[in-house]
Every structure is written in C-alpha cells, then in structure tokens.
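User: Can you predict the 3D structure for this chain?
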Amino acid sequence: MIRDLLEGGSLIDIFAVFIALALIAASILCLIYIIVGGIAFILSAGDEDKIKKAIHTIRFAIVGLIVSFVGFFVVRFLSALLDIPFALTFSDIVDLMNELLDAMGG
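Assistant: Here is the predicted structure, written as structure tokens:
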C-alpha cells in the first residue's frame, strides 16, 4: 500500500496515509504511556507525589489520544464541507497497521 502510494498516489492520498500513520503512532504511544503510568502507580509505594505523577501520566495519555481522534474527525468534517475527496476510514487504518506489522514481522 505504501509503495503503491509513493509511486502513483495523489497528494490527498499521501495526506490520508500520513494521518493514518499519525493515529497509529498516537494509539501506540497512548498504550505505552498508560502502561508506564500504571507501573509508576504500582511502584509509588503510597507516596502522594508519585501517585499524582502516575495519574497525570495516564490522564494525559488518554487526553492526547482523544485530541488526536478529534483532529481526525475535524479533518474528515472539513474535507466533506469543502468537497475534498478525502476517503479514510478506520478499516483503512487497520489495513495499514496490519501491512506495517506484516512488513516488520517478515
């Protein structure tokens, strides 16, 4: 998909794949920060400052994920409003993620 896009894709298609990759990266980073925050919470040993820091880490990870998906929906809304042929669905994002995982796995 990415190779075909670079060889003959339009600017809108490249932009759509860039947004899909950004959402994939945001989702992975959110998962990592939630795990890090959970581990920090477990290892806080009752220290209030460490607990607050861990909770803030988890909270900001979730807020960042929400902001990235709101940005995705704003781009979709604006493209529909301005009649820009921007066709990116969640199934396209999942297909791209599967293609990337296949490429990394062999």
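Residues 35 and 58 are 8 Å apart (CA to CA). The mean pLDDT is 85.
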